[in-house]
Amino acid sequence: MRAAQVTRLDGPLAIEINEIDEPTEDGPFGPQILVDVHAVGASFPDLLLSKGEYQLKPEPPFTLGVDFAGVVRSAPDGSGFAPGDRVACVGPYGGAGEVAATGPDNTFPLPDNISFEQGAALPMNYLTAQFALAERAGIREGETVLVHGAAGGVGTATIQVAKGYGARVIGVVSTEEKAAVARAAGADDVVMVDGFLAAVKELTGGVGVDIVMDVVGGRLFTDSLRSLAPQGRLLVVGFVDGSIPEVKVNRLLLNNTDVRGVGWGEYAMRRPGYMTRQWRELEPMMASGVIAPPIGATYDFADFGQALQDMDDRKALGKSVIRVR
Predict the structure, then answer these.
(1) How many CB atoms lie within 10 A of CB 244?
(2) CA distance 165 to 141
(3) Which domains does the chain have, with CATH numbers?
(4) Is-above-0.85 flag for pTM?
């Protein structure tokens, strides 16, 4: 079968589409589900893996692919899945082939109203958003959520999950093109990153927001803290800006605010069944249409590396997806 592989750690444009053996049902940790892959989502871990900069460091050659969607080819008894089932899957890597092996805890039923391309955009970003908002922030209906990087994959996922929980959402973006993406994803208001603090204060009548979802970090961090209402929670998800900010804790004391880390993968992978419970929480939102992942761009399988390069160049809007079939 064809697979998108890292053979040397020279970044996304060094990724090769190679012919390798198909996986088998017998995996290192027991029987596996085999999936005929239709689409793979381009993810930030894929980009880091291609450079050898991810916390997991498999030895090349290895197959990329964190998020993918397709049709079950075979499944072990008791897995809860059967041949022909439409599924979305997530794993550390290995899904970017024509056939992928996965486990029941990493496999989720894909509703008929969600396409394979959207399915490949769902698992990592939407489970991260659900974990951040519900588990870490304790979101409540009627709260206001500020989303940095609101036109990206995690950003659009956070907008939709927050709306599913009954929140008001303010998106922060850098261009009008990205503002249109955030609005289409469901943001109630969208502001430009330059001067976002003043804009947020105006939109909230000077009160501030209850939750900030921050994938950017860097220079925006202090103003994100200042944008919080009393007892607000700032969620640290990533550092797209490239620099890791520091917190002056007196800011937290004065307004009874929190800074909370969001490490979904580490948390979820250590708790069997946790991701399945998350998915069930999201299923009503998928059924209602609140969750409908916006696909920014689609690529042919041969262009897997280019999809990641465009992400690295910050050209991606929404979630980029690679078609396999």
Answers:
(1) 10
(2) 6
(3) 2-122+293-323 (3.90.180.10), 125-265 (3.40.50.720)
(4) yes
